[in-house]
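Table S2 (text version). Query chain:
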Amino acid sequence: MKVKGHASALRRHDVRTLLWPMVALTVLAMLLGGIHAPAASAASAAQRSPHTQAAVSAPTTPIWSTQLDFDNNGTAWSESYFAGLAADGLTTAELNMPWGTIEPQAGTFAFTEFDQELANASAAGIQLIPIFWQSGWGGSPAPWISDFEVGSGGAQGSAPAWWDPTEQSEYFTYVTDTIQNAAALPGYGGAILDYGYLDAQWDLNGAGGGWAADDISEFQNTYLPQTYGSIATFNSDNGTSYSAFSQVPAAAPGQPLFGVFQAFRAWSVKTTYGQLTADVRKVTANTPLYYYYGGGFGNATSYANNPDTFFQLAAQYNVTVIDDSAGSQGLTLTFASLARAYGVKLAQEWTAPSDNTQLAAQAVQWISNYAMGLPEGGGEDFFIHDGTQKDVVGFPIYTSWLSTLKGLSGTYPQQPAAVYVDFSQGYGNTSGGSLNNVQNEIANLWLNYQSGFSVVTSQEVADGAVSLSSFKAVLPLNGVDSNLTSYQSGGGTLLTQPEQLTQYTTAYAQIDSPGVGVLQTVPAVASNGTSASITLANITSGTAYDYPIAFSPAGLGLNAGTYYLVNAATGAAVPQTQQANGLVCASADISAATLAQWTMVAGSPPAGTASSSCPVTGTGADSVTATAGQVGGGLQFLGIGQTNSGSDGNLTQITQGGEPAEETWTTSQSGSGDANVYLQLDPLSAVEAASAVTVQVTYWATAGQGFLVQYDTPGNAYQNGPTVSSPGTGTWATATVQLTGAQFDEAQNGGADLRLNVTNAGAPLIVQSVTMSVTNSSSPTLSASPTALNLGSEAVGSTSTARTVTITNTGNAAAAISSVGVAAPFAETNTCPSSLAAGLPAPRRSASHPPRPARRPER
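Corresponding structure-token output:
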């Protein structure tokens, strides 16, 4: 289309109207300076000069920033307002630029208010970073734009048609002219470049655009010939029989050839952002530039917001990538890995949750994620300083932690294992792995393992930014592609289960099991390997973390030696205990939605700093117990009080035989065809790290009932162990089983390490306690069956019928038996040998005697 007053897309700056004082002098100065003419910007991509400009030198100082509306309700932000931001510790502020305000008519620019804001900011020690939105923010697009993006179903969006040559040129000119004006003024701190809808590129009401007439023309007349060369090649590659590129349809999602059109949309993002950035770099080569990344990985096929596109261009043009919604651990871990691989600075922005009750917790989570991006840290950005509730709650948390953030240096721990994401769907491979849940999967892996694994994308490998051969093991998250097949063929280890990561990564932190998902820790390790700064964040809105936490110098990547923990705020050593396994266990008491900063330094902890909680609550414990109605034994029942329909792990607490117990739901209650007792180990216990474990289960011996012990191993989260069959005595019984080859990584449902799979799910399994102990390589284990006898009532002077109790050595060494006895007035006889070999039973008999004229109660 042709906008009124623009007969040609090739325009010269000297014919524009500039709404500012001393217009003639200003225009003359601009002409003498040789202003960039954006003629090439309007042309088809086929006619443009390739944007292969070498990486330029630009400031890389991190931004400590907040977003602002363009002005204060129609008035320029004042010097005193900016001074307040500087007093809070900020160094920059981002202005959401309204295209229609800056360029109210095509070719007519009004810079007066923006210039005043730059001057006011400079006087207060703040630099302003304009955010250029093509659409989606108030005032953008300009009101004189009339050709808009279209979805596959014909719906019109609010963004200008992506490939309308006139409108694209007009936007490029608006951006470059505004930057050229601002770059020469004090107070300018760089610019954020966006194209399409906000920072979500092709987004159109949650779906995707790309079907405007000019888009389809670019697809058929430029992209297809450039990509395939000839229609014959296209037909050969795609199994079609077209006679010209103009016949190739702009296929909608789900239609044949949609992959081809999706590849065009991905190419469009890279081509357009690349040309826009190249144009801006011609105007100002030495000022900072930024890209916003919006949306999530699951949006790749709708938005074509493929992360590697931005990192590749950022490396070429020295641009900082801003991770929008950096509160997501999965997104930030991925972007941090990409930043290190491409050598690009990464800034992190907070996007507040819609639930105001979660504002503080989410702000804490975002802030604590910052060290993930080191050593490529590019600062933080608070969205948005506007006086709303997120501002009232989140902004003070942010500013109170700024001095700590500014002091972080070093690098996030790096270990020789990676998780791999196939991003090919975003580039047009319709059979590529689904991206819908990988972001959350990465976050969950990290919360559970707290280790420095990398995240690698398929496009990162294709770009040559990383080689899979540099990793000892790789875990695919959404399928195995040709990159992974080649890696495995070359001798690389391809993992099949998340828990296998622990064989190749040493966790830098082990969080007490009740606090997994409550507390997260993010370290920054000094470049010389002698210390680490650790951010601890309680990321819940109402649950305090009051448990021990252990840190591994090896997992952090520190040099060999002895280390201890210091509270960075006070400089004092925290209560801690040095463990024999090399861990440093400390007592932590962190309230909900609260941050803490510790430092691990070389040396031995000062006298008097031993932790009283570490040995008591399970750290290093070689035996842990879950007991119904009790907590703190180092092992816990999961699913107590849970009433989820269809769940196989619901438990109800009851009283059975005078004792508290946990009872499984039956199939008729839950609607599930299975029933289990799920248990989770304290990850700080020695049992959690053991491969050979003895399990003792005290349960109600219901006739026909029993259970199969299933436990976590490197290759199977539900490894079958021994099966226990109930003796059907209707009393409490204890079964002891041995597990070998265990690797407890909370990989079962709900983060469990072990479960008792009920034999008869139609009837409840009732469990009183479960004890798990490290199996000594040469120790006996004695168990009795049954554990209690009901002798009934006997007349005074009579003797009851003898009952048999079998003692079994379930250990792996002989048990020495010196004597067997019972308390009066009972008597016993036995056939137990002096040494009971492993795996053998020794029966004994017991009978009552009548020393008193009374009846004996049941025993």
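Notes on Table S2: The two ends are 95 Å apart (CA to CA). The first strand starts at residue 17 and ends at 18.
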